[in-house]
Each structure stands twice: as structure tokens, then as C-alpha cells.
From TrEMBL:
Organism from which the protein derives: Streptomyces phaeolivaceus
Matches recorded under PANTHER family: ANTI-SIGMA-F FACTOR RSBW, ANTI-SIGMA-F FACTOR RSBW-RELATED
Residue span, Histidine kinase/HSP90-like ATPase domain: 30-139
GO molecular function: ATP binding; protein serine/threonine kinase activity
InterPro entries, sorted: Anti-sigma-factor_SerPK (IPR050267), HATPase_C_sf (IPR036890), HATPase_dom (IPR003594)
Record's protein name: ATP-binding protein
Keywords of this entry: ATP-binding, Kinase, Nucleotide-binding, Serine/threonine-protein kinase, Transferase
Short name of one Pfam family: HATPase_c_2
Keyword ATP-binding in annotation: yes
Length: 146
């Protein structure tokens, strides 16, 4: 059976390989939005606008962090699960984000940066950081859509 014509009862764990490399937050946002709109199938219907806003915010923060702090984007994957969207962003730095403010807790004073990682933790139901043997790291998150 062709996976694109499968019954629409629930989202699948199909993954996406972007036709072009994702190198910017704007490209990542566009790709993820198109991917979800095209492939999300749920008895509950399409994701709410708030769920999509949260997802796009997480995409922006992950990719921006990889560019600013990780030496660039080494890979970007998106997959659908029955709970939402799994994102994986690989970069070139082995340095892992420091939860200076605890998971999902925003800093009391804004000092020019520091909001991205807490937002990623707050809006994702799962967050995993894995150092790669070949160098760099992969940050994978699950952002709920229900």
C-alpha cells in the first residue's frame, strides 16, 4: 500500500527528508508547516492554530540555536506520531544546552538571550539531547498537536 494513500485514522511515523537542505529557521518553519498540513490525519481533525503556533515556535528556536550556538545545521528531520510532531536537529557542537533556569522556566531578567531553551522545554512533551560519535549533537523533541 502506498503510504501517502493509507487510511486517515491516525498520524503515522513517516519521516520527511527535505528536498533541499534546511539552513535557516524560515526554511524549517515553512517545511514543517507544509509537512503537517499535508500529512496530519487524525479523527479529531487538523491541529488547532495554537498547537501549530507552538510547533512553529519550537522549530524556530531549535534551528536558531543550532545556527547560533551549534556551528550550523548538520541535519533536520521531522516525523509524525500519534501524539504530534517529532523534530530532530543535528548540529556540529558537542556542547549541550544548559538548563540554567530549569526545564520550561523563563529567566526572571532578559539579558539578550536565554528564552529559547526554556520555551523548547515548556512546549515539548519530550526533549532528548544526544552527543553523536562523529561529533556534534542531535536534539530531538516531541511537540504535541492534540
Amino acid at each position: 500500500m502506498n503510504p501517502d494513500t493509507a487510511p486517515a485514522e491516525a498520524p503515522s511515523a513517516r519521516t520527511s527528508r527535505p528536498p533541499v537542505a534546511i539552513t535557516t529557521a524560515a526554511a524549517a518553519r515553512r517545511h514543517v508547516r507544509e509537512f503537517v498540513v499535508e500529512r496530519w490525519r487524525s479523527p479529531a481533525g487538523p491541529p488547532s492554530e495554537q498547537a501549530m503556533i507552538d510547533l512553529i515556535l519550537v522549530v524556530s528556536e531549535l534551528v536558531t540555536n543550532a545556527v547560533r550556538h551549534g556551528g550550523g545545521i548538520a541535519g533536520f528531520d521531522v516525523a509524525l506520531t500519534s501524539e504530534g510532531v517529532r523534530l530532530s536537529v543535528r548540529d556540529y557542537s558537542a556542547a549541550v544546552p544548559v538548563g540554567l533556569h530549569g526545564p520550561g522556566v523563563l529567566p526572571r531578567v532578559h539579558e539578550g538571550s536565554g528564552y529559547g531553551w526554556p520555551l523548547i522545554n515548556r512546549l515539548s512533551s519530550e526533549v532528548d539531547v544526544e552527543r553523536r560519535a562523529s561529533g556534534g549533537k542531535t536534539i530531538s523533541v516531541l511537540v504535541p498537536l492534540a
